[in-house]
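Regression test case RT-17, inverse folding.

Input:
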């Protein structure tokens, strides 16, 4: 902490002494406020931020020790240096017991005082760093995915998606019937025919969206398509990129490869992994701007492979990062997002015995890491 960043409050009833010390500290670059008694000092602390209080012990009105106690009670972070009269060591010791940083006896040597102030400021800086670290750890914990909760939500939403498919099919069919009716000759004389067609179109669009959601939740995997076998992640990535060719070209996106030797062959479920890659790559494409860069990597990691899908796009805010794997969490518009991509990706990777996590800096980009075992051990139940 530089001298000018330290805010001092000087509380002393001897005007001459207080002003002289104040002047000298100001000269050394400190920002100094002054109060002639404890009450005034406390009032000033409510209005101005202060790091260190220099407090006279012997004052009329509120005593130094009482002022000290009150300051500590209201502003625990403020450090206090007591000034005691000559041969009044007991005051100093009482002060330290009540929470003072240290005490000096009058008359005060200015360099000595300055030294003490800097030590006190050092303590404040240390406390601030400790607090920052605690906040950081707090944020990190929130970022962790609550796997059990997601698994429960997964089971439930798959059930709901399944149940919704039947009524959805009926709505869809009935809408088709109504649409056919609008073609009948007797409908030509119906004055509200256009409004009716608009309404039908709205229903059709909503059915499409609901379908998209149920398909994503159910994973639309045909039994024979889901199969465990040898697969090459690079080939699979390339295949997925070609599915997204149009979006990649529209934004002029560049693909970088970082592949460690032999780190692309694993035993897993091609169909499921392709689904994960589509979800991650679509998000990356959405996140980057024109000429964005997407970096795809595979490297060895313990007994598995660590695959990375990294983009230099908008990034994810700390406020959202703990929610992105939740079902239906989306920051995209109604047409663009369902909020199911990452939820489904997480569910699949978990079923395949792997892990998925994210690192992101707002404004800089994000990287989704998928860790997969080299060999699939069939101790997990495949999603239906
Ligand atoms: N690569 C990324 N860059 C920035 N934000 C992302 C990225 N991937 C996911 N997100 C955030 O996570 C949210 C959820 O993603 P997802 O589950 O795929 O649903 P959707 O893409 O339909 O919104 C997105 O709306 C977005 O806010
Ligand atoms: Mg998505």
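Golden output:
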């Amino acid at each position: 902490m530089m001298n000018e960043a330290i805010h001092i409050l000087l509380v002393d009833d001897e005007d001459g002494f207080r002003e002289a010390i104040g002047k000298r500290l100001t000269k050394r670059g400190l920002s100094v406020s002054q109060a002639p008694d404890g009450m005034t000092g406390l009032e000033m602390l409510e209005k101005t931020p202060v790091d260190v209080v220099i407090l006279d012990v012997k004052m009329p009105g509120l005593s130094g020790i009482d002022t000290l106690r009150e300051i500590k009670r209201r502003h625990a972070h403020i450090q206090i240096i007591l000034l005691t009269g000559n041969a009044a060591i007991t005051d100093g010791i009482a002060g330290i017991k009540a929470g003072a940083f240290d005490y000096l006896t009058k008359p005060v040597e200015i360099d000595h005082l300055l030294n003490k102030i800097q030590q006190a400021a050092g303590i404040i800086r240390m406390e601030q760093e400790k607090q920052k670290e605690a906040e950081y750890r707090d944020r990190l914990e929130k970022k962790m995915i609550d796997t059990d909760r997601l698994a429960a939500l997964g089971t439930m939403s798959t059930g709901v998606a399944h149940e919704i498919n039947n009524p959805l099919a009926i709505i869809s069919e009935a809408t088709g019937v109504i649409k056919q009716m609008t073609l009948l000759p007797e409908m030509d004389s119906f004055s509200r025919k256009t409004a009716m067609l608009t309404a039908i179109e709205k229903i059709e669009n909503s059915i499409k969206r609901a379908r998209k959601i149920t398909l994503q939740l159910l994973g639309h995997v045909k039994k024979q398509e889901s199969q465990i076998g040898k697969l090459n992640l690079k080939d699979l990535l390339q295949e997925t990129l070609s599915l997204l060719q149009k979006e990649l070209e529209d934004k002029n996106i560049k693909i970088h490869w970082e592949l460690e030797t032999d780190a692309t062959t694993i035993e897993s479920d091609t169909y499921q992994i392709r689904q994960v890659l589509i979800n991650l790559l679509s998000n990356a494409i959405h996140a980057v701007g024109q000429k964005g860069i997407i970096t795809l990597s595979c490297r060895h990691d313990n007994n598995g492979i660590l695959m990375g899908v990294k983009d230099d796009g908008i990034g994810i805010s700390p406020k959202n990062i703990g929610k992105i794997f939740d079902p239906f969490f989306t920051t995209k518009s109604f047409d663009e997002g369902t909020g199911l991509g990452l939820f489904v990706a997480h569910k699949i990777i978990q079923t395949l015995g792997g892990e998925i996590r994210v690192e992101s800096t707002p404004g800089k980009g994000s990287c989704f890491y998928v860790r997969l075992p080299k060999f699939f051990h069939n101790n997990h139940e495949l999603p239906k």
